[in-house]
Amino acid sequence: MTHETAQGFARGLTNYGDFDFSLYLRRSFAASMGYSPELLKKPIVGIANSFSGFNNCHRHFPELLEAVKRGILLGGGLPVEFPTISLGEIFLSPTSLKFRNLMAMDTEEMIRAQPMDTVVLIGGCDKTVPAQLMGAASADLPAVQLVAGPMMTSRHNGEQLGACTDCRRFWSQYRAGTVSDTEIREIEGKLATTAGTCAVMGTASTMACIAETLGMSLPGTAAIPAVHADRLRAGEASGLTAAQMIRNPIHPSQIITKHSVENALRVLLALGGSTNAIIHLTAIAGRLNIPVSLQRLNELSDTTPVLVNLKPVGSDYMEDFFYAGGMSAVLRELKPLLHLDTISITGETLGDRLDVDPGYVDHRVIAKAEKPLEPQGGLVALFGNLAPRGAILKRSAADKTLFEKEGRAVVFSSLEDLANRVDDPNLDITEDDFMVLQNAGPKSTSGMPEAGYLPIPKKLSTKGVKDVVRISDARMSGTAFGTIVLHVTPEAVAGGTLALVRNGDRIRLSVIDKCIELLVDDDELDRRRSAWVPDVIPLEDRRGYDRLYAAEVLQADEGCDFAFMQSIGTKETNQ
Ligand code: FES
Description:
Layout: H1 19-31, H2 37-40, E1 44-49, H3 61-74, E2 78-83, H4 97-113, E3 118-123, H5 128-139, E4 143-147, E5 154-156, E6 159-161, H6 165-175, H7 181-188, H8 203-214, H9 229-247, H10 252-255, H11 258-271, H12 276-286, H13 294-302, H14 318-324, H15 326-334, H16 350-354, E7 379-384, E8 387-394, E9 404-412, H17 415-421, E10 434-437, H18 458-461, E11 469-472, E12 484-486, E13 506-510, E14 515-518, H19 522-531, H20 544-552
Parallel strand pairs: 1-2, 1-3, 3-4, 9-10, 10-11, 11-12
Antiparallel strand pairs: 5-6, 7-8, 8-12, 9-13, 13-14
Helix pairs in contact: 3-9, 4-5, 5-12, 6-7, 8-11, 8-12, 11-12
Bound molecules: FE2/S2 (inorganic) cluster (FES).
């Protein structure tokens, strides 16, 4: 065995000009960790651990980690855990998305730089799984994605509740004056009561389902609750699979293909899943030269039914989804629409997997394809002069009475402007107007936060108005709902038409025509464009990662990755 084909601690030796010396040195330092000579000879399964005191969703990882280690030992490997940065959604400022690419770089480089033969990635909270999949795709070492699993729900006055669709519902009621100060404090303590990711089909759960659909997680594991014993068994099985992949390596580039990405898009649409997932899937696929176009999303959306009755689109929670049959049941319903030749980390094709009876399925939670919740997919891309490269509307979580509408723009030039004026009693707004937020896209100072769910002005919410059309270049939490047009591309800071919208302009939204148009003539737009200056901190006044991010981040339709992190090669080579 040469040093290029070596396994375990003998992999990737530091080159001092004498590889025997490097191996001798590494073995002696590895031995200082107390490993026996027998274990030192084993191939290594690395475990990328994103545990953090700033990540409530990952608080059970120490126990899950032990289960993974058991599985690896069972499969004849040596488990070696290593930390990566973690992204706790609620604890990061200005927004967790800004750090997804940093975590992806950390994950990729630590997989590549350290001596491991395969790797288990343990993540869960919104941006962590995309980051780990991006890093694993680029490193292309055999990898198993293990997710945290969702939180369990809680109860308030007999009503089931869970993070975080209910967080928003109760907060809206509080703003409207129908929930008191005392009650909102009580609810605050009941929204997130166990380890695990948000309890609805938000971004974390959507990405867990996408990871399973891509084939990067073990079949049937996406929806297992974080605190269920099956989650630990999934951890053990993931460790065992990663150890088996040492002998039978299957690389991410064999699993994440044009076909598996299309399957993932179908699943995203059928779940009524998070709008963030389209950005993340585009970024993951981009690492392997697989383009994801919004036009293709629309084609798939027109022919993919919504099947899953989970909040924020429906009424149930992830624990219900798990007991109802989980991803196996969803994939079975979608079978005629899927590419069945894709493979997973087990080496099994999707077709083989779906030949097995999924067992009991609760069709109140997972609808049959012939009797769907909605005949068309949950997401739709809109185009027009306001979003030449596209914008996203989660139509399954929106008010259909607002889908074909023209309205007057009420413009907020930044998040600060929004916070300062949204509840001003003198704000000139009616329920027929369109709220427009500018300068909150990926290159903005705020870095594309989940601020697209603009609060309904108190002036309207206290009158009982629950939804108005809201348009921005920001994102929206996967747990949110409303008629919200997001990811407007190009963004305002990059000189998109969104930057030119003024109070009183007319905007036309048509979901039927898949369009979003600013009804201002071209001459006037040209005049405004020639006077426009970007509202952003200039690059020369920024430093470090903040500067790198602002300079290099791509637009939403390209997945907000860094251009220099995408694969070097010709697009569409990876089929
Ligand atoms: Fe971690 Fe929602 S805060 S998944």
